[in-house]
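Notes from hallway chat w/ T.B., transcribed later so I don't forget. T.B. wanted the structure written out for a chain they're using in a teaching module, and asked if we could keep both sequence and structure tokens in one place. Agreed to drop them here.
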Amino acid sequence: MDGAWIGMAAVILGMGVPFGVLYTYYRVRKLRSEERLAGIARGVEIPMEPELTQAARSRRAGLLLVSGALGYILTFGLIAQVQADRDVWTAAAFGIIPLAIGIGYFLDWSMIRRDARASN
């Protein structure tokens, strides 16, 4: 197989997957809106989804980033142990970036919670 085909496939997948995700997100939002409007037109009471507080958003982002980073670090650490290659640990070190961001979100969550308690 020629290298040009590999490059073309990489570009198509690299651009196609994000566009597919965006289109899917758009369609789901549009269908939810249409469903809500149809229910309102029929007189059905539609419960509104509650918005998450800033503390809940920070906590969720912190959990996702920290767990993703730990999984990333552990995966490359396991690969480094199996292959006995110290250079693979370099890839595992990149997991520190989302780990630090996740810890920052946890700090944000704790400060928001502390400020909320102080104001009450």
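Follow-up for T.B.: The radius of gyration is 22 Å. Might be a good example for the class.
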